């Protein structure tokens, strides 16, 4: 257990990425999110409010491949781990991440009835795409990396910033997004999981921007530490 | 150190006193209370009054035959039958013509039949603008209408749980005077008057979404009843408009449909009445009253005191035709020109006056507690009948008819004034918080002035004057007398309003201020004498996060929605702290199992809270029921019933095992151990009781063996009391207090837990188990976020605010998970009768308090020492431990006091909110009782432990 505390040697880090590269990655993921919304509205003529579970399903199905394709490029130990293996483990990550997110949401008070089950499932898949999938694509089963980045909040290198901060952003955004739910405004978007979704997407985008600015601000430093 | 700790015990006591004073002051300003007097008026009382016992005898012969057949009571009856049609939440603009309002709206002028009748020439009908007194909820309003008083939020009376009116009221007087009553519609009436109606057709009122059931039921029974002669007073209460308002709002097509439906119903009713109105007919002398019990806002809400909510309306019509005779001095009508240029007028009336006026019209004694006066215009509508007879017989002109009416009216007012004065005197003498002596002497002066005038001059005029000589003089005298009485009434009502319906903002702000100061003091007390915190390290992430959670929770009380879903909010916050702990546990690579277990327990609690919320939604008018948590298992599935029967018993057995392990591990320590063994015996009894009650185990014979179903609970109570006595005496007489802290805390908690579990019913044991496991996880996870490297060496870890915060959030969740909510219908009255069949107020109140606050306050406060993390046994550690325990108690006091302060602030801000009586006030009462109880228990616990 103790040796996990030590920093990983630099050799295991795969392809590194510049701030500009990160920006383009964000641009592409954001673009596909927008494409997802566009497809939902124009092809299926529904939206998040009128049919949340269909919308969420389309969103994560569109977003998931692009996230996997991009982040698998930055996988650890590219010489040992093939590209397709990274893609394969991301699918596993997607499912287990969805399970974790769903359990977390239920413990925080998400409805557990039969009629909200599809919504919860698709919401947790989308959350999994935001939070767990990039990390599985990059780290795989390397628990030490996971621990260092997510638990100890000690990311090194731009790619880890790109994994950590948007993931936390999406989670915290979703947490805040749940706040309007009990209010008696009787708006359709107060239903589970619509406003939580908005919050998570908002938090994700804010997280992307924060990580981008951190990369630019702190790019001189070799070993970056969060305040 | 000893004196220091003695001083600390006094600190806890001091905060109890400060909180009690602050809350007392605030409550005096906010929660208006009134004592219900159990005295009833009777017919013979009137001989005590200075007034004429019966109206002028020479007119008795000339009154209608029907009046002679009935025995006279206080005043002469002027109408034979009364039909009261209550249209719930009838706004004034539903009835009054649209010219009275700035602009016509789609919902106006729909009840055209009432307007047509009221504004016809030679009309015997009138539209009144009626003023209700807040709280404008149906139950409170019906109470106000029938008692003629001002119901407050808390009417201190003998009704414990049951809403039946024990005070004297109009309905009760009708029954005493042999009138026959028929009721149809809203079942609130049958709740308020369970035995008074000869016939009743109640329909359930709580399903707000159902616009038609009550109304159709009413209509179905109303028309046949109108043709019958087996009743004297008919009450029909329609709910459609209220429900349409709650669901769709005022400006909606369902509302307009409802109004149009009512118009046709009323048209039909009036047709029937007019057809039967001829001499000798069924409705020869009947009065029809169509009224609202309160208004509503455009959104359909009511309960508060805004103009839209208190302004309702009343339409009154007598089947005898006549012209109105009220002298212009006492005419309250306001007039407008309608589109045809015709002068149309509506009068105004206080709902307060309804009981007195109807009693006078029907000639029965006024309700004892009525403070209203007989309204001249409404009284004139009915009383015109014998005036017309008089003018026919005696050839009096209109002028004399008016005078004749005034003579009758002044006598009625005399009786009325005497009755109100009697009530005020009796109330002031018998109530705990009566009126001030200044107010009383002012009112007495007014009354004696009026009475002096009465007995010196007016009485003689009525006794012997036949009114020929100096008629203008007599008329002026009468008017002067009436004015004197009305003056008396208005000052009584003004006094009563200020006492029973107006908040005292100064007292409220003073109470709030004291509470804020005590909060600051208590906050300082947490860190007093703790050098390490002064170095700035106290603002750790844990403390900052605790502050954040407390602030969020406090702010959430500013919105009624968060108060309604408080359980869910607390659970959300608790789960958030659990997730944070999990993150730290993963980071430190310790206690991960505990963190997951904690989250699992939180999930169990949230399911339990959801079940509680659906129960609440079934009775609350503010919540929509959402059965979304249902898992789709048939409720009568055999496996499920089996599980429901077995699980509580199994949990009790597990609890016994846990206690056994707890005392087995501890070194032998005589008394404490025996006390804990006592709890195990109690648990065993509880398991036996439940096993014998369950159907599937077939242990019915067990009840006979143990001597009835009350024997076991009583035994458990006795064991609990004996345990507490033992613990108290052990604390007082045994010096060996330095040893073994944990076993003492276990003994105290276990002694308290057995009655709590018993009273909570079968869910109790499972919840106790969840509570235990979650508490254990909190204890284990305490300090997990600290850097083990830096703090690990120091022998005594510092106080961790996050863990106290989690504990108090957990106990709040337990309150909601055990099926409670902050409303009086959330109390489980059944628990007061576990082990007892007959009702004794104090005993049952204690049991109810234990049930309500058992998990959330009693076990929470007594269980707090188990969270203290130090396990070292050195004397030095013991002192440190006591200091830390004191801090923890102070911190948990700060947390609960912050919540209460936020509630109080919110109640002060929202005191005119429409949900103040439905939602904020009950929340306030629960919070305040919880705070005082936990302060008290903190005092006891610090006396026990420190």
Automatic annotation (TrEMBL), chain A:
It is found in: Endoplasmic reticulum membrane. It comes from the Eukaryota. GO terms for cellular component: endoplasmic reticulum membrane. The keyword Transcription regulation does not apply. One of its GO terms (biological process) is GPI anchor biosynthetic process. Pathway: Glycolipid biosynthesis; glycosylphosphatidylinositol-anchor biosynthesis. Coiled coil: none annotated. Keywords: Endoplasmic reticulum, GPI-anchor biosynthesis, Membrane, Transmembrane, Transmembrane helix. InterPro entries: GPI_biosynthesis_protein_Pig-F (IPR009580). It is a multi-pass membrane protein. The chain crosses the membrane at residues 12-38, 58-74, 86-109, 121-146, 158-178, 198-218. This is GPI biosynthesis protein Pig-F. It comes from Arabidopsis suecica (Swedish thale-cress).
From TrEMBL, chain B:
Pathway: Glycolipid biosynthesis; glycosylphosphatidylinositol-anchor biosynthesis. Signal peptide: none annotated. Residues 809-939 form the GPI ethanolamine phosphate transferase 2 C-terminal domain. It is found in: Endoplasmic reticulum membrane. It holds the Pfam family PIGO_PIGG. It comes from the Eukaryota. Coiled coil: none annotated. This is Type I phosphodiesterase/nucleotide pyrophosphatase/phosphate transferase. It comes from Arabidopsis suecica.
